[in-house]
Amino acid sequence: MEQKHTREEKMAAFGRMLDVLDELRVKCPWDRKQTNESLRPNTIEETYELCDALTKGDDHEIMKELGDVLLHVAFYARIGEEKSQFDIADVCNFLTDKLIFRHPHVYGEQKVDNVEQVLDNWEQIKQREKDGNKTVLAGVPKALPSLIKAYRIQDKARHVGFDWEQREDVWNKVREELDELEAELKKEDRQASEQELGDFLFSVINAARLYKLNPDNALEMTNQKFITRFNYIEQRSREMGKALTDMTLEEMDELWCEAKEREAKEREAKLR
Q1: Which residues of 71-98 are buried (b: 16+ CB within 10 A; e: fewer)?
Q2: Do 50 and 66 contact (CB within 8 A), yes or no?
């Protein structure tokens, strides 16, 4: 369903949402008692639900989940207004001013030729901002999932020149970290093995970044692929009248291969 709204309609819709939130904050017992602290877990959940919708590519679900996330933004702004700290206008104006300041190639005289120059300038501008990050890595949120955090750390370091000169050289580092991990595993030193595992994963994520691959998306695709294939094994085992725990590894491997063949046929059918 395609919908095209005028600017006035968009502003009216945003205002209507704020009006309803204001009323709920006064009249609804649940909405009235919410605080920044109580909303935080729900905000995290809503963000992940939006990520799920984005991964599925379901436009209708994306629209719905964006609404839930937007509600949380407005809710925090309403709480800030009640505390006489800030309101939704302050949030919007601060964001807009920041966007203008960080895009001198659009709103100023600076010239850029490609996306990489834009990103490099972005990091440098953030360092110069009055309330900007005091160190290069200070802008990486502590609460980020470790895989995404590793990627962001490496990317920020890249913008100030701390990176491999040739991306192919990263594979030597990956092999080196794998060798060190295997060495510690043979010693059965759990703490050292865990540290080396972290170093190995960090190097693999670095390789993905250098080859412009998103490791989080890649891992999620593999997660979904495993779930699909394992669900197939579970379904087929029920059809065979067997419990998974009663099946041999060889039997499950055979069903796993069936699932892979099924996926291949489905891919071929889509290409026809």
Answers
A1: bbebbbbbbbbeeeeebbeebeeeeeee
A2: yes
d(CA 15, CA 22): 10
pTM score above 0.85: no
Per-residue tokens: 179: 């060798």
Q: Count of CB atoms within 10 A of residue 258's CB?
A: 14
Q: Which amino acid is at 158?
A: R
- Which residue in the block uniquely carries the two structure tokens 């005028």? 6
With contact defined as beta carbons under 8 Å apart, do 74 and 88 qualify? yes
How far separated are the first and last CA of the chain, in Å rounded? 27
Higher-scoring residue by pLDDT: 103, 73: 73
Q: What would the two tokens of residue 25 be?
A: 């904050």
Residue 87, C-beta contacts closer than 8 angstroms, at least 6 positions apart: 77, 78, 80, 81
Per-residue CA distances from 188 to 57, 180, 182 (Å): 44, 13, 10
pLDDT of residue 103: 87
Tokens of residue 192, six digits: 């050292």
| Alpha-carbon gap, residue 45 to 39, rounded angstroms | 10
Helix then strand then coil, in percent of the chain rounded to 5, is 75, 0, 25
Q: Is the pLDDT of residue 126 over 80?
A: no
Those residues whose C-beta lies under 8 Å from the C-beta of residue 29, and which sit 6 or more positions away, are none
Above 60 in pLDDT, residue 173? yes
